[in-house]
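Journal club side-thread
Mid-discussion, someone asked how the predicted structure for our own chain would compare to the paper's figures. Pasting it here so we can look after the session.
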Amino acid sequence: MRKTWVAALVAASMLAACTSDDEATETTSVTTSVAPTVPATLPADTAPADTEPVATDPDDTEPPETVPADTEPASTDPPDTEAPDTTAPPTTEAPEDDALLAGAGSRSVLPTVAGTHAFLLDAPGWDGFDPNDPGAFVAEWDQGRVDVGNGDSDGSWVHDDIRASALAIQRGDDLLVMVAADVYMVFAVDAAEIERRARAMLPAEVAESAQIIISATHNHHGPDTAFSVNDDWYDFMADEVAGAIDDAVDALEPATLAVSSGEHRFGVSDGRDPIIIDTALKVMTVTSTETDDRIATVVQWGSHPETTLGWTPSWDITEQCAVKGWEGEDCTANGRYFTADYPGVLRDRLQAEVGGEVLYFNGSIGSQIGPGDADVWAVDGGHAVGNGWSVPNGAAGVGPAPVTDEQSPYRVESFARTEAIGTQLALAVQGVAAGAVPLEVDEILWREQPFFTRLTNIGFRVLLADGDLGWQVPTAFICEAKPLTEETCVSDEGRFVDDPVLTPLIESQIREGDVLQTRLVHVDLGDVGFLFMPGEIPPELTIGLPATFNEDPSPWYLEPQLHATGADYTLPGYLLELVDEPLTFTVGLGGDELGYWTPINEVRLKCLDLVMPADSGVTCESLFDMGYLVTPDAIGGPLCRTLYDDPAAPDLLDLSIDSPEYAALVATCRYGQALGRELGEPEGHYEETNSAGWDLVDDLFAAAEDLLGREATSAGTNPDNPGYTPMNPPPSG
């Protein structure tokens, strides 16, 4: 997630919406399966299916059986998985009345032309494509101008389809529906409206009891759902997502589930210290017991879908620019095309091989887990995937040649890079799925824990006041003091107020409330669970820090001088130590999006002299000389929390609460996240500018302990995490 906002301000990107309860709630629905229980040692260790993936046409027509452009017939090493000794065949007996039912549905959420998506017939997609072709040109949408999420204004090309896919699992009247949408983000308040529309479509007997969760893949090249929202398009999209939910429920049939997991590292990197990457690849297959056809494949991996972010296709668009009236530097396709990125490739390849719908859930992608620094090479018979990070000797790059001598052939941006990442992910999924073990589900247990968190990033409050964040208007809260609960927090009733710095600077007000409410959701299927997390969670908060991190953190840092290191990089624990199932799908942007989550000791906010009290003589330099700043241009998160939360802060800092120095420190904390983005955040600390607040990690973890009924004992380190990185990869053999 990378977006700048207007006029000398911020990239204060994501936000949360509201639920009304502060107690964890749970509902139970019972399902059955005909298969034996998943072994405690998940996942499985098998080779990929001995087939080549074939691309599908974006309009769901029968694809030609051809190998994708710029990719030789893929020959990959088996993903690192643990396999069960046996698997059970699907049952052929007639289902019992209480048998497990499953159904899937999927719809395009692209804007329309003349009420249709016929333009997809001209979109290149992922079969036989030119890696520089931005796609089918669309001069005007039915819904008007539709901007690209984290791209540019006026999306005008379609490279491949953008879809929302739903999976329904039911027993009796108890129904679970999970949705994955190829969009930037879906805020909770927007998801609630989509759910409302879906419930109106569902059969009366399940309309109210159905449990529905809507997640975004965080695709950076879909229609904008965050900052520059076309309300007419979003209204259309909401109906289509609701329709996909209804389609999935309408398609319910007797089914079996099978699960497995492995490791996959190809095309993923970490852009911020410490370099911690969750490379787990988790797969659930859903199969019809009547036809043995694949109903759906659920995939969870972790990487930003931003493979071509900031890339300008080398394509002649002179005629299109004339149609749009773009001249000079404005005549560009950069950020103006729609693509589902590598999750779209994954979907096409899997559907061509095994059929069914594909739900891709992103994992822990915070603090810049993505393709940006990853080497991507042409995988063929002589150049295998190996460990996914080490380029084989003699391997070629994919797509166009480097344009400079300094550019690596393995880092050249184009759609060939996207296709290579998606294709190898699909092959890895097939390998993992080949070793999947049947999952016996005795009940579905849905639990959710609403929690409040403070918007310390004042940029979010500006965006809320300007109506520039999401589709629907969320509730913001005014809270007396911590702990933030239903008893201490009240709605601001949508009020706006002036800010003494920002209102004169940008002529905008801010939302009066500085607290939002979100939720953490856990779905328990017995030996498998789904944990839906409302944002871009850093992998270490999910899987834990490597076992030796505190003793010698150097293997996980490229710029240790810019960050908290070792024992100073503190976590309250890691989420997977709190669950009790052997395998948990950890879903980022799961039902909401609050931005990046940074541990409090790692938070650094920009100090700017322009927010210092007038005529006080206080400067950032003087505050640093007094020992209050961690660097000459940054204040640390712990001090900001103390200033905001601890009544004894003046005594602790040996400052009068009325002193200009105290006021300067408070102002630095108030504006450091928002103003830091456009005026220069502290080096290595971009993510704080795109975070709702510095309390996110601790608020989430407290909610997780309440939800799951366990307390962390690890202090954040995981003895089973080997801590492999691109600098220190596992063996390739």
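Post-session note: The CA atoms of residues 195 and 340 lie 23 Å apart.
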